[in-house]
Amino acid sequence: MISVNDFKTGLTVEVEGDIFTVIDFQHVKPGKGAAFVRSKLKNLRNGNTVERTFRAGETIGRAIIENRGVQYLYASGSDHVFMDNETYDQFELSEKQLEWELNFLKENMTVNIVSYKGEILGINLPTSVELKVVETEPGVKGNTAQGATKSAKLETGHSVQVPLFINEEDILLIDTREGKYISRA
């Protein structure tokens, strides 16, 4: 059990049978009435974000999340096959569970699987990945102010805005949290 007064960003908790991670929290001490904690929580099972208010000092269950290294093997229809790096066991995750992650996932990539009491909740990608540009328009020099960008399609099918000097076949460093271009690799 953990007190809501000890909330930290990234903490995982169990509330009413669901597993949440704390995205944001704020301790509020009104002039009249009891103090409380206003929080924004992300459900790790379905990805929904909810706002909850707890009384100050209230205790809730702490969820111990397990992270293990796994390797992405291949897509099998709408399922995606992963292999545990320690036990070599293979398991599948659905496209629905990996909606955002599929924009950055390549075959043979190592990622972390997130599980709670044996239930697989999803995967954690590295903060940045290297991906190849497969389609983009050639950069045209001209009357541009600073920061001109164009669209580039990556090998995973994800499109990002990149500077004009990026060409096809270039390897780019992409931020997996926001899906944005960082630099050339």
Automatic annotation (TrEMBL):
Q: What Gene3D superfamilies does the annotation carry?
A: 2.30.30.30, Nucleic acid-binding proteins (2.40.50.140)
In UniProt terms, what function does this protein have?
Involved in peptide bond synthesis. Stimulates efficient translation and peptide-bond synthesis on native or reconstituted 70S ribosomes in vitro. Probably functions indirectly by altering the affinity of the ribosome for aminoacyl-tRNA, thus increasing their reactivity as acceptors for peptidyl transferase.
Q: Where is the Translation elongation factor P/YeiP central domain?
A: 67-121
GO cellular component labels:
cytosol
Q: Which InterPro entries match?
A: Elong-fact-P_C, NA-bd_OB-fold, Rib_uL2_dom2, Transl_elong_fac_P/YeiP, Transl_elong_KOW-like, Transl_elong_P/YeiP_cen, Transl_elongation_fac_P, Translation_prot_SH3-like_sf
State which gene encodes it: efp
Its family remark reads:
Belongs to the elongation factor P family.
Could you tell me which SUPFAM superfamilies the record lists for this protein? Nucleic acid-binding proteins (SSF50249), Translation proteins SH3-like domain (SSF50104)
Which CDD domains does the record associate with it? S1_EF-P_repeat_1, S1_EF-P_repeat_2
BP GO annotations: peptide biosynthetic process
Q: In which pathway does it act?
A: Protein biosynthesis; polypeptide chain elongation
Question: Residues in domain Elongation factor P C-terminal?
Answer: 129-184
| Location of the protein in the cell | Cytoplasm
Pfam families membership: EFP (PF01132), EFP_N (PF08207), Elong-fact-P_C (PF09285)
Q: Which GO terms describe its molecular function?
A: translation elongation factor activity
What protein name is recorded for this chain? Elongation factor P
Q: Please give the organism.
A: Paenibacillus etheri
Q: Which UniProt keywords apply?
A: Cytoplasm, Elongation factor, Protein biosynthesis
Q: Which NCBIfam families match?
A: efp (TIGR00038), PRK00529.1 (NF001810)
Domain of life per record: Bacteria
